[in-house]
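Hi Y.,

Following your request, here is the sequence exactly as I used it, all 231 residues.
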Amino acid sequence: MEKASEETPLGTIRSFVLRAGRMSDAQRRSYEALAPRFCIPYEKRTLDFPALFGNHNPVIVEIGFGMGAATAQLAEQNRNNNYIGIEVHRPGVGKLLWEIEQRGLENIRIIEHDAVEVLKDMLLPESVDGFHIFFPDPWPKKRHHKRRLIKRPFTDLLVSRMKQGAYVYMSTDWADYGSWALAEFSATPGLENPYGGFAPRQEWRPLTKFEKKGLDKAHEVHEIYMVRSKH
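Below is the corresponding structure, written out as tokens. Let me know if you'd prefer a different format.
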């Protein structure tokens, strides 16, 4: 069953609906055992990253990590980075917590809440080194385009939380959404496109199972990589 969406503080329609997904026994056990340690409750209080992670390493925020496999792989391969994953679907949170335990990761924290409110209320201006938005819901029907996450003024909020020189990296296998997002990012003050248009796939980005299935069906993946200007 889907839960009806409400408007966000930015006056936009939520980009997700909460579905009653079933957690596996392993996901439930991981959630119950590890959520108190690795999950951060949503509060209208800005996070202190050095206090949260115990170091001053770069902080990468992933919006909508799904089942968390790519997130865990990146965190394992880049232990000198800190990662904050934002996801509203609890089975995915449980799966990433399971991955954290299996891989012995200490550099991930999870916020189970709406990304718009998290960015607005919990992230300090110019505090984030990178944003990952991999395969967000494309809301392909025209009447649902208003639910797409990547549009202004959300992109302006995103930029405000990025350090100078920080990046935002989005991937989608919906051509229409790719063109839409590229236009929205390009119209957002403070962002520069080092590629001029769509970007090549960054070699360090893991391929997800979802993406591999799409590639097997000849789906083209569109990559957008933008950098916050240093002036």
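Residues 24-41+67-115 form one domain.

Thanks again,
Q.
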